[in-house]
Design goal:
415 residues, alpha+beta, BirA Bifunctional Protein, domain 2, Rossmann fold, 2 domains, eight-stranded mixed β-sheet, five-stranded mixed β-sheet, 14 helices, 21% strand
Length: 415
C-alpha cells in the first residue's frame, strides 16, 4: 500500500459535511458584504511569490514547493492566496472596472514545513481581498467581514487583536530603532534573526525561538513611531470598530512575515484548541502591487486557515448542522421489488430527494441495518404485497412510526 504523503490529510465522506458547513458560511457572509468569488491557478510562476510575498520571508526561503516544468520554467504551488489574486487583478485589467474590487476565495495551498495540529503541508484557506480603497473605512469593513464570519460559525471564544505597523516613512525610523536595540544582542539570537537584522528587522519580532522572544519582549514598539497620517488612520479604524460594536484589543506585538503589509494588521486568536493560535489574520498591503512592479493600488484583506477553524469549532462545540445526506432508503424484498425501488428512486431524485437502493442483494434485515448506518431518515419497504397495492410501507427512522404511502405520493414526505 502506498502511504499518504506526510503533511496531507484525507477528508472522508463522514466528515466532509463539516467543511461544507464552513464553506457555506463563508460564501453566505461574503455575499452579505458584496464580495464575489475568484478562482486562480494552483500553481504560478515562482517570480510571483518571490516578488509578491517577499524574498526575506520564510515562505519564500524555506517553505515553497518549487520545481521546473517541462519547458524549464520555474513554477511554484501557491503558498497563499493574496499574490495570485493580485496577479489576476492586474492581468485581467480589473483596475479599470468598478472600484472597489471585492473578491473572496476558497483554496488549497502548499508549504513545506513541519506538520502539526491545524497546520499541514497541503492546507486550505478562506480569504478576502479589497482593492482600491485607501481609507480606514475599508479596513473596518474587512475586519467586520471577518468578525461576522466567525460569529456566523457560532464561535464565541475567538478574540480580535489589532495593531498598526505604519508606512514606509515611519517604518524607516522604526527599523533604525530596532537595529540600535538588537545590535548588541545579535550574538545571543538565532541564525534567522541575524539574517533578518539587515534586511527586515521588524521580522525579528515574529521569531518563535524562545531565547529570541526574551530579547524581543523589550524591543521598541511600532505604535510609538507612527507618523501623523498613520496614527490618524489607526485612530479612525478603532473608532469605526467601536461604533460598529466589533470588540478588539490593541496588541503592539502583532507584525507580519509578509513584506507587503503596512498600517493596519489584525488577528483573531483563540486558545480553545490548546495553545493560543491565530484563527484568521489580515491587514492592509498598499505596496503589494508596487512590489510586484505594477502601479500601486491600495488593498486590504484577510485569510483564515480551514483546518485551524475546524479544530476551534470542535473545541468550542459550536453548533453544526447534522450530516443528513440520505432522505430515503428504498428496500426491496425480492428482484421485482428491487426493480420498483430503483425506478422510484430515479423519480424521487428528479424532485431533489436523496435516495439509496440496495445494490448488494442484502436481506431485508441487512438493508435496515445499512439504512441506519448511513443515517437515512425514512426506509420505504417494497415487497410482493406492496407491489400489488402500489404503496410502500414507510418507516420514520427517528420516531419508528410506520405508514402506508402510495408510490406516487412518496415525494410528498419531503415537501
Amino acid at each position: 500500500m502506498i502511504n499518504i504523503p506526510k503533511g496531507t490529510k484525507d477528508v472522508l465522506p463522514s466528515e466532509v459535511y463539516l467543511w461544507h458547513h464552513v464553506e457555506r458560511t463563508a460564501r453566505k457572509t461574503a455575499e452579505s458584504f458584496a464580495f464575489r468569488e475568484i478562482r486562480t491557478p494552483v500553481f504560478e510562476y515562482t517570480e510571483l511569490f518571490s516578488r509578491g510575498v517577499g524574498d526575506t520571508t520564510d515562505i519564500v526561503n524555506k517553505e515553497m514547493y518549487t520545481f521546473l516544468d517541462k519547458g524549464n520554467r520555474s513554477v511554484t504551488l501557491r503558498p497563499e492566496g493574496t499574490a495570485g489574486v493580485a496577479r489576476a487583478f492586474v492581468g485581467n485589467g480589473l483596475a479599470g472596472g468598478a472600484m472597489p474590487f471585492k473578491a473572496y476565495y476558497l483554496i488549497s495551498a502548499f508549504r513545506y514545513e513541519r506538520p502539526q495540529a491545524g497546520r499541514l503541508r497541503e492546507f486550505h484557506q478562506f480569504g478576502a481581498e479589497l482593492y482600491g480603497a485607501a481609507g480606514a473605512y475599508a479596513d473596518a469593513e474587512i475586519i467586520s467581514f471577518a468578525d461576522a464570519f466567525l460569529k456566523n460559525l457560532g464561535l464565541k471564544a475567538v478574540k480580535l487583536q489589532i495593531n498598526s505597523i505604519g508606512c514606509k516613512t515611519c517604518r524607516a525610523a522604526y527599523n533604525e530603532a530596532l537595529k540600535e536595540y538588537f545590535s548588541p544582542r545579535l550574538s545571543e539570537m538565532c541564525e534567522d534573526c541575524n539574517a533578518r537584522f539587515s534586511k527586515n528587522p521588524m521580522r525579528m519580532l515574529d521569531c518563535k525561538n524562545e531565547n529570541c522572544k526574551a530579547h524581543t519582549a523589550g524591543a521598541p514598539r511600532m505604535l510609538d513611531y507612527l507618523c501623523g497620517d498613520c496614527k490618524a488612520h489607526f485612530g479612525e479604524v478603532k473608532n469605526l470598530l467601536d461604533r460598529a460594536g466589533v470588540a478588539y484589543t490593541v496588541n503592539p506585538s502583532i507584525v507580519r512575515g509578509l513584506d507587503y503589509y503596512s498600517r493596519t494588521v489584525f488577528e483573531f486568536v483563540s486558545d480553545a484548541a490548546g495553545a493560543q493560535g491565530t484563527v484568521l489574520g489580515g491587514g492592509r498591503y498598499d505596496s503589494l502591487l508596487e512590489q510586484m512592479g505594477e502601479k500601486s493600488v491600495p488593498a486590504v484583506g484577510f485569510a483564515a486557515g480551514m483546518e485551524r477553524l475546524l479544530m476551534v469549532i470542535a473545541a468550542e462545540n459550536a453548533p453544526v448542522p447534522k450530516d443528513e445526506c440520505v432522505d430515503c432508503y428504498l428496500a426491496g424484498m425480492d428482484s421485482a421489488a428491487r426493480t420498483q425501488a430503483f425506478l422510484l428512486a430515479a423519480e424521487l431524485r428528479k424532485k431533489g430527494v436523496s435516495c439509496e437502493v440496495d445494490l448488494m442483494d442484502r436481506s431485508l434485515k441487512a438493508q435496515f441495518k445499512y439504512a441506519d448506518k448511513i443515517g437515512a431518515r425514512y426506509v420505504a419497504v417494497i415487497g410482493e404485497k406492496e407491489l400489488e397495492e402500489g404503496a410502500a410501507e414507510v418507516k420514520d427512522m427517528q420516531s419508528s412510526v410506520s405508514q402506508r404511502v402510495k408510490f406516487c405520493d412518496l415525494g410528498k414526505l419531503f415537501g
